[in-house]
Hints:
Number of domains: 2
CATH superfamily of the largest domain: Amidase signature (AS) domain
Strand content: 5-15%
Bound molecules: 2-acetamido-2-deoxy-beta-D-glucopyranose
Order of helices and strands: HHHEHEHEHEEHEHEEHHEHEHHHHEHEEH
Distance between the termini: 31 Å
Structural class: alpha/beta
Helix content: 25-40%
Number of helices: 17
CATH class of the largest domain: Alpha Beta
Number of strands: 13
CATH topology of the largest domain: Amidase signature (AS) enzymes
Amino acid sequence: MESTHACYFLQFLCIILVLVTFPSMLPTTLASDFSIKEATIQDLQLAFKRNQLTSRQLVEFYLNQIKIQNPVLKGVLEVNPDALAHADRADHERRTKAPGSLSGLHGIPILVKDNTATKDKLNTTAGSFALLGSVVPRDAGVVTKLREAGAIILGKATLSEWSHYRSNEAPNGWSARGGQGKNPYTLDEPCGSSSGSAISVAANLVSVSLGTETDGSILCPSSFNSVVGIKPTVGLTSRAGVVPISPRQDTVGPICRTVSDAAYVLETIAGIDTYDNATIEASKYIPKGGYAQFLKKDGLRGKRLGVVRQFYEFGGDTLLDETFKLHLKTLRQRGAILVDNLKIDNELIGDQSEEIALNFEFKLSLNAYLKDLVTSPVKSLADVIAFNKKHPKLEKIEYGQDLMLQAEKTNGIGKSEKQALLNMTRSSQNGFEKLMKRNKLDAVVTPFSSFSSILAIGGYPGVNVPAGYEKGVPFGICFGGLKGSEPKLIEIAYSFEQATLIRKPPPLRKLEV
Length: 513
Ligand SMILES: *[C@@H]1O[C@H](CO)[C@@H](O)[C@H](O)[C@H]1NC(C)=O
Ligand SMILES: *[C@@H]1O[C@H](CO)[C@@H](O)[C@H](O)[C@H]1NC(C)=O
Ligand SMILES: *[C@@H]1O[C@H](CO)[C@@H](O)[C@H](O)[C@H]1NC(C)=O
């Protein structure tokens, strides 16, 4: 019954997709054997090479998809008015430069989260009207690297406003400027704060995107929207020019449809940036030859994976329980050694250390970010709070601003702040690091993003891969490891992804506006 329905439904969708996507492309019809939808970076580069596709056609496709789907999904906050011109430039370069001299991301459209500065016609506002009209001094470090690689900045992705550091009450995926972002599978909860980045790649509004994470903001929306997210080791990618929460926990990473796309984006954005000195120390983790070499189908062979049962809570949901049992079996069948029934001594449960630290770090780092702007309607956290009060409708003051108010009350690093930082360092060392080393683990595997706080507090990397759909709601599996373990995590994630191939594009609805 269900599968018959699915067949009719799919045919219906195809017709709609064709009608909806191709009118604007009639003068430049694509070779019939190539479809942009779900295409990977490698597929796109091959299509460029075979003259089946140009960057202009690709950008036109996405602009059209954004026009059709974004009024409902609200994954995209702004479209770059120069995107087509940049596509033309990429097409010209491809025709005139030596084959093989262009980077993997050359001519590929990418969205960056709206907390990531671009020195162009796009605004950088963290979703807030308080930053509308601000002028950034320069591109964010990661944007500089994207432009050097020839990627096309297609626009800004929506987010939970201020990366969810305004208020606990604000809904995930909501910002005053971007509205309520929606999960394309359920038209409901997208998780945050890099909601728009995940929504947009999931719904094929762009090829790839960047998100940022302080605690869960890449891993959680990736899990909810059935995409791959890499939360890199803190410092592996530059945070310069990113509206901050905490220099100790903030990190910028790829959100893409596949592990291979995420690896290509990561190798483009990782590296030293003199505007973020943490990148100097972390550059020792970057492998010679980049991350793509770790896309190995047999990448699970011999890997020791820790199963930490306290993160396998399914609230009595037997289907989820069964699914993860199957996934663990798959990991074993692909050659991984599972070290089961592990426990992490998490000294921070019920402790306010992270909250204490983020509060003072947010105030210090946001004030520094605002001070560095060329012009801005707000020059300090206190100004932002006043702006929200002064524009209660525009900024939906009913969502409150408790996190900002708490942060504003802090006054630098005192005794309790030092204690909080110490507690977190100690907890990471006695907890996660000890577990990894004692059991000689390559990674820990958990459902969803249930492990993200452990990874966040210690600055450790994690990768989310699509793991299934329950009643149409996507969920992911997460692999986390010690600092600099991205090569191993990519091997593991890619091998799992290729063994399961779970991701499906969201159902294309007739989206009513
Ligand atoms: C940036 O914001 C201004 C003011 O609202 C707006 O006029 C402009 O179109 C925005 N830029 C883009 C690229 O959307
Ligand atoms: C980075 O470190 C150098 C050398 O210690 C220092 O001069 C510079 O101001 C630092 N830059 C930033 C952005 O902190
Ligand atoms: C940190 O650890 C100390 C000593 O174990 C404890 O008293 C304190 O409550 C912890 N939390 C914070 C936020 O300092």
